[in-house]
Write a structure and sequence with these properties.
about 210 residues; mainly alpha; transmembrane helix; UPF0056 membrane protein; cell membrane; transmembrane; Multi_antbiot-R_MarC
Length: about 210
């Protein structure tokens, strides 16, 4: 039961950070001139890239900490600040500029291959941006047992599958929710993200000062 609780907590947090619902309008915009089959192919490639990116950083995060001499507490504080900035922009119903810039949002207009569209800007940095990478690395670094580490990896896989499902049904989701509905969902994700960010900073300060 504790394992399921940990899984759901991390899944909910990572879902709020990646915010695949909020990415639906961007996905529709960058694939508007493509056939349904190619849209599905891009959705698959995007979800695979998100999954691989987060898995890689989850697995090599410990060595990155050691290489740069950064403690998990310092990383927690820095990550919390990044997430809080993202949450403020999401609370206003906008995609965070920490995740994607205006230039990156329109890069697909010059993209030559499906791989370019799927990887940039959809997978990186729109879905698996600095916030998602930081959080995944931090959760993995603070996991002390193989079960806890396995939960982190399983959540990343689950997020990848979720991204694929949502992007594959992007048109239907947009029709059901509409622009206002998606903005409401984005604000809700922003509120969850803000609470996560504050907690990360609190945990980092406690650990750094042994409070």
């Amino acid at each position: 039961m504790e394992v399921l609780k940990d899984f759901l907590l991390f899944y909910g947090g990572l879902f709020a950070i990646t915010n695949p619902i909020g990415a639906v309008p961007v996905f529709i915009a960058v694939t508007r001139n493509l056939s349904p089959e190619k849209r599905k192919e891009i959705a698959r490639k995007t979800s695979t890239t998100v999954m691989v990116t987060l898995l890689v950083f989850a697995l090599v995060g410990e060595w990155i900490f050691k290489f740069f001499g950064a403690s998990t507490d310092a990383f927690s504080i820095a990550g919390g600040i990044i997430l809080f900035r993202m949450s403020l922009e999401m609370l206003s119903g906008k995609l965070s500029s920490v995740k994607i810039s205006e230039e990156e949002e329109h890069i697909s207009e010059e993209a030559v291959t499906l791989e370019e569209v799927a990887i940039i800007p959809l997978a990186i940095p729109l879905l698996s941006g600095p916030g998602a990478i930081t959080t995944t690395m931090l959760y993995m670094a603070k996991s002390s047992t193989m079960i806890e580490k396995s939960i982190v990896l399983l959540v990343v896989v689950a997020i990848g599958i979720t991204v694929w499902i949502i992007l594959s049904a992007a048109n239907r989701i947009h029709q059901k929710l509409g622009t206002i509905g998606i903005k409401v969902m984005t604000r809700m994700m922003g509120l969850i993200l803000a609470s996560m960010a504050v907690q990360m900073v609190i945990n980092g300060v406690k650990g750094a000062f042994n409070i």
